[in-house]
Amino acid sequence: MAEWIADYRERLPSLPVLPDIAPGDVLSKLPESAPEGPEPLEALLEDLDRLIVPGLTHWNHPGFLAYFSSSSSDPGVLAEFIAAALNVNAMLWKTAPAAAELETRMVEWIRRFTGLPSEFEGVLQDTASSSSFTALLAARERALPGTREQGLRPRWNAEGRPRVYQSDQAHSSIDKAVIAAGIGLEGIRRISSDPQFRMDPEALRRQLSADREAGELPVMICATIGTTSTASVDPVAEIAAISAEHGVWLHVDAAYAGPAASLPELRPLFDGWERADSIVLNPHKWLSTPIDCSVLLFRDSEAVRSSLSSTPAYLETGVEARNLMDYGLPLGRRFRALKLWFLFRRQGAEALRDMLRSHIALAMEFADRIRADDRFELAAPPSLSTVCFAAVPPAAAGERDDTEARNSWNRRLLDMVNRRGRVFLSHTELSGRFVLRLAVGSAWVRAEDIEAAFQELIAAYESLRADEPPTTE
Amino acid sequence: MAEWIADYRERLPSLPVLPDIAPGDVLSKLPESAPEGPEPLEALLEDLDRLIVPGLTHWNHPGFLAYFSSSSSDPGVLAEFIAAALNVNAMLWKTAPAAAELETRMVEWIRRFTGLPSEFEGVLQDTASSSSFTALLAARERALPGTREQGLRPRWNAEGRPRVYQSDQAHSSIDKAVIAAGIGLEGIRRISSDPQFRMDPEALRRQLSADREAGELPVMICATIGTTSTASVDPVAEIAAISAEHGVWLHVDAAYAGPAASLPELRPLFDGWERADSIVLNPHKWLSTPIDCSVLLFRDSEAVRSSLSSTPAYLETGVEARNLMDYGLPLGRRFRALKLWFLFRRQGAEALRDMLRSHIALAMEFADRIRADDRFELAAPPSLSTVCFAAVPPAAAGERDDTEARNSWNRRLLDMVNRRGRVFLSHTELSGRFVLRLAVGSAWVRAEDIEAAFQELIAAYESLRADEPPTTE
To answer: How confident is the model at residue A396 (pLDDT cuts 50, 70, 90)?
Structure first.
């Protein structure tokens, strides 16, 4: 099995990042029922090679430059292997004491690695969606005490409603959390962002004041350090001051960018996050940890616990210790701390910081290539390891306003690049523009992959230009 | 690493199931910060043996008879190893097509294995808590349309409130889901159960009618097949008829017992579950699958999707395919389907059914031992692979009513058994009585472990009796 993995790792760079496959292709090759009798391991490995691997988007491929990467370094993979063999469930301290305490310590390692003060403690969750949802429930209970018992309505003014504040660049997981918590999408105040896609703190202040006056019920402000589209950074220090002024829970979504707080030269970007009530950052994004692993840090442990916890008789242990089930929705909990322990000890903090720096350097070099080429333009200021850009279609010089035509050209360009399989880039939408997006973050990425991305873009551009000569009318 | 695991597996039966450890023991031995430089793998494995293993409750130990077991059979462990190496994120079809389609097929295998009709489809979640929460959100949106946009209040009558119906034996995860969804614990109607701990359908019917009349808003009925305390089985067919009558979403929590639907002789227990709107069952409980793996099955896929999904521009793919992120709160998703595929193919459905049967037989033999011994009595009808029982303290013959004294005696007895480390039993509370609980469910359990449990109980009983001779006043 270890051999199979080593072999997969070796041939990975030569596989296409994105599979050439249509919906249903894999499904149709899988039997409709489970077999009655056992099959040999060899048959499984053969099918793995024949059916599954060719149908996967390879997140560990060095050419995976889409979304935010998730990459599994060797220590993380080994830790997952051991965690599956141990198979402990750290729902209660008693049900896996060492796992519970290692989790506490690993959260502390992350806290120190990112320079956060000792007031923060936390837990591991599966994803940022779950972490932010847990934070929202704590914020809801603080703003509208009694919600856990009485539900939302009695806490909801006749005039006003619960409100969640976030920029128009915040991640969709906050929207889902707001839906799930019963607040409803209409409760979201989308604060405008500036031309660099950072929340406008004055707009936030105005909205909060107006809402207060109107009897609305501010529940949470979500600031983002490293937005999903452009990796822009909200002015957290100013937002923290506003949140303190109004006594509103401040949640900082640093799911992607969080690990970069370990770099002293980047600390100014994080100014003010130490005043947050809760922070989420995901080692399974920019810290080489296998999916899933999200760290939820919070300042008021009791606020989180009391907003959601419920202990039936069959889970009472009589032990005075922190039970991790109380800090999130799921009762059962995998032994996620093990992979952070393996990662930090096998690689060391210094090597992790070096990796982050090299990713940022690669992204900035790519941004320079884009800047220097007339066929492309930057679509947002490059930030951290993320670059948003767009092709300038050949005929477009005179029709810069024809957004639809430009968008369609960029869509085709991206599709062509991705179909070729050497690299995988993603896209986003910025002020109505379809924009291409390259984000560096994998433990496996090399300089040659970024160079390949640029060459693939040029090749696709020229191929599209040749196919469709500009219609000059 | 594989060697380490093989070695752990081998010495597991000789380790104490529960560690002899106090809160903070492990934490105090772990450095407060991550190391700056790398450490050799040997150092990690050494610390794993020295610090972690002795501090764990061993869920894979053959003497683990507490709660509901979660055990990781070899195929599941290997699949987790591979899944970590592949590290795909099946949030969108496009981001891991083969993983998304294997998940669809594995849910179908489970559906056929458990004899559910083809109207059901589903997804994998981490835990039953998340599965039931997802079901509740769909039920909430069906009962109170528009909640996802407007939130709960405008949907909440002046006279009435959203109501969730469950027996007094339902799992605490439903309570947490109700809190999280903004309905509030006071929205729960705890329907009384009969002396065998099964929901009283007449009481449910009366409560629903009364609530309808009073303008309350029924959202969901949760029936349980295999309750956590006693593995009792609610009369689902009758409950399904009532739910149809009132048009209320029926959720069936079969997290533990679900796999037993694969046994034809037990199908009567599941009568009516095929009429549910949603069902949860956990392969990571009674189906040898490493934690975490919960199957959420539902009848109206669109109801689940539309109650929660939210797709931002950067996640639009233009591909007509089911995106798994739309069927739960978390965006990122591990490749959980792989372990079900490995499990079913390496073991075969027949062997899995044989395992379930052997667990039930072991539990029933244990129940017979309890029945036959004057020092103990059954506290509930043994059901499936779960036995609830209590010791009858020596002096208690004349003071059967002194519940507190009996409870305290049983607490001490359980504590003594668990401290000895050969087996781990848990407890529950039934009508104010502290009750001991043995549940068989591990892939690794042997007849000798059940025998050992009984012998340990006897030994502890006699030791307690010797320590504290009955005070005859």
So the answer is: low
pLDDT by residue (tens digit) across B342-370? 999 999 999 999 999 999 999 999 999 99
Q: Which of B346, B367, B391 is the last residue of a domain?
A: B346
**A:159-198 residues touching chain B, CB 8 A cutoff:** 161-162, 171-173, 175-177, 179-187
Q: With an 8 Å Cβ cutoff, are B81 and A84 in contact?
A: yes
Of B330, B346, B362, the last residue of a domain is B346
pTM comes to 0.97
CB within 8 Å: A30 and B101: yes
Q: What percent of chain A clears pLDDT 70, i.e. is strictly above it?
A: 98
Chain A residues touching B39 at Cβ < 8 A: 345-346, 348
* Residue B130: CA count within 13 A, CB half-sphere: 28
User: Are A95 and B59 within 8 A, CB to CB?
Assistant: yes
B189 interaction partners in chain A (CB closer than 8 Å):
none
User: In sequence order, what are the residues at sequence separation of 6 or more whose Cβ sits closer than 8 angstroms to the Cβ of residue A415?
Assistant: none
DSSP state of A382: -
Contact with chain B for residue A84, Cβ under 8 A:
yes
Distance from CA of B398 to the nearest CA of A (A): 28
Tell me how many domains chain A contains.
2
Claim to verify: residue A392 and residue A279 sit in the same structural domain: no
Q: Which residues, including other chains, have CB under 8 Å from residue A287's CB and lie 6 or more apart?
A: A259, A343, A352
* Distance, CA of B471 to CA of B436 (rounded, Å): 24
For residue A359, give its domain range.
349-467
Buried b (16+ CB within 10 A) or exposed e, A230-244: bbbbbbbbbbbbbbe
pLDDT digits (tens, 9 = 90+) for A75-95: 999 999 999 999 999 999 999
Closest chain B residue to A10 measured between Cα atoms? B85
Tokens linked to B464: 């307690």
Tell whether A130 lies on the interface with B, counting CB pairs under 8 A. yes
Question: Does residue A95 sit within a domain?
Answer: yes
What CATH code is carried by the domain that includes residue A455?
A: 3.90.1150.10
What's the pLDDT at B471?
56
- Asked if residue A57 lies in contact with residue A101, where contact means CB atoms within 8 angstroms, the answer is no
CB contact set of B272 (below 8 Å; sequence gap of 6+):
B235, B236, B237, B238, B239, B240, B241
Assess whether A383 and A300 both reside in one domain: no
- CB < 8 Å from B in window 2-31 of A: 2, 4-5, 8-9, 18-19, 21, 23-27, 30
Taking one residue from A and the other from B, the number of pairs with CB-CB distance under 8 angstroms is: 452
Q: Do A86 and B171 touch (CB under 8 A)?
A: no
Q: What residues have CB less than 8 Å from B39, skipping those under 6 apart?
A: A345, A346, A348
Cβ neighbours of B153 in A, within 8 Å: 152-153, 156, 161
Cα B276 versus chain centre, distance: 19
Quickly count: other Cβ atoms within 10 Å of residue A23's Cβ. Answer: 15
Contact A185 B149 (CB under 8 A): yes
What pLDDT, in 10s, does the model give residues B306-325? 999 999 999 998 899 999 99
Mark whether A187 and A229 lie in a shared domain: yes
* Total Cβ atoms within 10 A of residue B17: 25
Where in B368-468 does DSSP place strands (E)? 376-378, 386-391, 426-430, 433-439
CATH number for the domain harbouring residue A269: 3.40.640.10
Can you tell me whether residue B199 is helix, strand or coil? strand
My answer on whether A88 and A237 are in the same domain is yes
Q: Is the model's pLDDT at B401 over the cut of 90?
A: no
CA end-to-end span of chain A, whole Å? 62
Asked if A314 lies within 8 A of B350 by C-beta distance, the reply is no
**CA distances to A85, A347, B1, B61 from B46, in Å:** 17, 17, 12, 21
